[in-house]
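Hi C.,

You asked whether I'd gotten around to modeling the 259-residue construct. I have! Everything is below, sequence then structure, no commentary in between.
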Amino acid sequence: MKDFRIFDLTPENMAEYGVCGYKDAGKHKELRNKMEWFSIHYPLGLRIKVLFPESGGYQGMLEYIPGKYAHRPVQADGYMFIHCIWVGFKSEYKGRGYASALLDECIKEAKAGNMKGVAVVTRKGSFMADERVFIKKGFEVVDKAAPDFSLLSLKFDPASESPGFNTGVLNRPDEYEEGLTIMRSPQCPYTEKNVQSILATAEKKYHLKTRLIDVWDAETAQKVPNPFGTFCMLYNGRVISYHPVSNTRFENIMNKIQG
């Protein structure tokens, strides 16, 4: 017998339940941005499943969208694409099969939609799920991108063409202007924090030209020169951070670069 329930977040109820730890839309710009972004992409098939155990509150989330609209630099048309998954906001709720249960919901929907399968980008470390949870469900690595990103897919028909990274995009970060460029998407609420302070530090302390690009649509996200897709920090056309960082971490990066 299940000791949890899974249901959909919608544009109407997201403010009630929150997302990614943000629960107060009046207080958190991160949540307001996510709600607006969610409302735009919901009609395109974006879905967020949340998991609640019998006690303990919100302990799992899975976000996915048809691959055509994935906010990653991938070619995954025909696949259901997973943006993010997390379980066990409290440590005692880890290891209970919640991730597997959430993935089952996504796989079931992809099959019902006659899709080729399900795809996801993984990476060890912060901000992205480790590939092990997907390997256990039968996913296989079908592509890789520097420095340590993997693209996995679960094919319903082994003969289907595999999804892949947009390698042409990933290999051309030098097309961006000199100075500091930050690209961010409200798909990930954590891309809001620290950005303004980093831009101010870049201008005042390092005398850099700065540029902020807000990524709201899939077309732009699929051209980001970073497999993470929803965040990228470039210095003089070189990626210097593949995920959101603090202002202190930015200073450490710049001090190392400038010697």
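If it helps when you're writing up: The chain has eight helices and 13 strands.

Thanks,
B.
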